[in-house]
């Protein structure tokens, strides 16, 4: 048990949890979730959460092997991930649409909700980028925390929408968009430095 929690750090856990929360943006997806419910009926919150957890944990541990198979380094993938995070942040801040998601069928709890809305390309690249900088145990716990948040949000979608209103959800998207933008820049500069071997200093 001691070895399992080796490297655990509350500050790291908070940072990683915040990053994943911003990337997954489950609160900002509430309007989309409501549309899916209206189109396909009641969504299965437990199934969506489990599939999302499986995808994220699986990619966290197998992502490196997949990258090696294609001859890609963690640093280069992290830089690519930072670019995707940057684009996602612009979507949230400017209200533009750079990524397009297809909505289909009776399996909406899995596709497109679990993948690619929750555990999509942005989340996967974020996990690889985070793994290059933070301890695995902190990432694992943060994944679990975010999956619990996803489950609760799916259960309380209507109440959250009524509580926050359209204005509240819009404000949240802007706030987390700015946080995500700053994180993307930090990940980009840090991993670009490691990739090309030149120093980049960022004050904490």
Task: Explain what you see.
The chain has eight helices and no strands. Helix 1 crosses helix 7 (136-155). The protein is mostly helical and 204 residues long. It starts with 9 loop residues before the first helix and ends in an 8-residue tail after the last helix. It is globular and about 50 Å long.
Task: Summarize the model shown.
The chain is mostly helical and 204 residues long. The chain has helices at residues 10-24, 30-40, 45-69, 74-94, 109-118, 121-131, 136-155, 157-196. It is built from eight helices and no strands.
Measured by DSSP, the beta-strand proportion falls in under 5%
Mean of residue pLDDT values = 80
Helicity range of the residues? over 70%
Distance between the termini: 32 Å
Uncertain stretches of 5 or more adjacent residues: none
Number of helices: 8
As a whole number of angstroms, the C-alpha radius of gyration is 17 Å
Largest sheet, strands/sense/barrel = none
Structural class, from secondary structure content?
mainly alpha
Count of DSSP strands:
0
The best one-word shape is globular
**What string, H for helix and E for strand, traces the elements in order?**
HHHHHHHH
Descriptive tags:
204 residues; 0% strand; mainly alpha; single chain; 75% helix; globular
């Amino acid at each position: 048990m001691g070895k399992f929690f080796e490297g655990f750090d509350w500050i790291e856990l908070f940072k990683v949890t915040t990053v994943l929360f911003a990337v997954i943006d489950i609160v900002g997806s509430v309007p989309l979730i409501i549309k899916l419910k209206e189109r396909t009926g009641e969504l299965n919150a437990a199934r969506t959460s489990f599939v999302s957890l499986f995808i994220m944990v699986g990619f966290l541990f197998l992502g490196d092997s997949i990258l090696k198979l294609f001859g890609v380094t963690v640093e280069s993938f992290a830089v690519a991930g930072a670019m995707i995070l940057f684009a996602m942040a612009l979507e949230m801040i400017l209200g533009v649409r750079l990524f397009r998601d297809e909505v289909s069928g009776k399996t909406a709890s899995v596709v497109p909700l679990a993948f690619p809305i929750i555990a999509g390309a942005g989340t996967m690249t974020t996990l690889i980028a985070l793994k290059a900088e933070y301890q695995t145990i902190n990432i694992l716990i943060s994944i679990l925390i975010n999956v619990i948040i996803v489950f609760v949000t799916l259960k309380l979608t209507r109440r959250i929408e009524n509580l926050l209103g359209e204005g509240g959800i819009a404000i949240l998207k802007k706030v987390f968009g700015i946080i995500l933008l700053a994180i993307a820049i930090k990940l980009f500069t840090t991993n670009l430095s490691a990739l090309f071997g030149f120093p980049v200093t960022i004050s904490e």
